[in-house]
Amino acid sequence: MGAKLIEFFAKYESKIVLVLGFVLVSAISFEAGAIKSAKISQKPIVIEKLASVDCEKQNSNPQESQNLIQEGQNDISGMNKPGQTVPTNRQDCAYVGSKNSNKYHLSTCRWAKNIKPENVICFKDKNDAESKGYLPDKNCIK
What is the pTM of this model? Predict the structure, then answer.
């Protein structure tokens, strides 16, 4: 049995060394990557959007500028768009949109039903939705 093993090793020596080399390099590369990723600690990404303020108003009265900034922050947090009401019942709307999107849907569309109640915007017709900058959803409106 020992003679057969020596004969096998002698016959396939270069291929065995090549395979063992690939396995060794793969293992070392994997471990190096694991060690490197353990050292990297990622901080969360924070996106801040500042309220835009007219330069003329900002320079004219500092108190007025502060009020504009606070109003802008209220608009961002409340996501209220002027002239748009949140319906009490989605079935009262012909078309429904979201404050967080630029698409509008049929009120019976499954995508419209996924919109949170506090983000629902009601439209009486297609022209109403499109005049406010919304586009038809390709899944609901053909």
Answer: 0.38
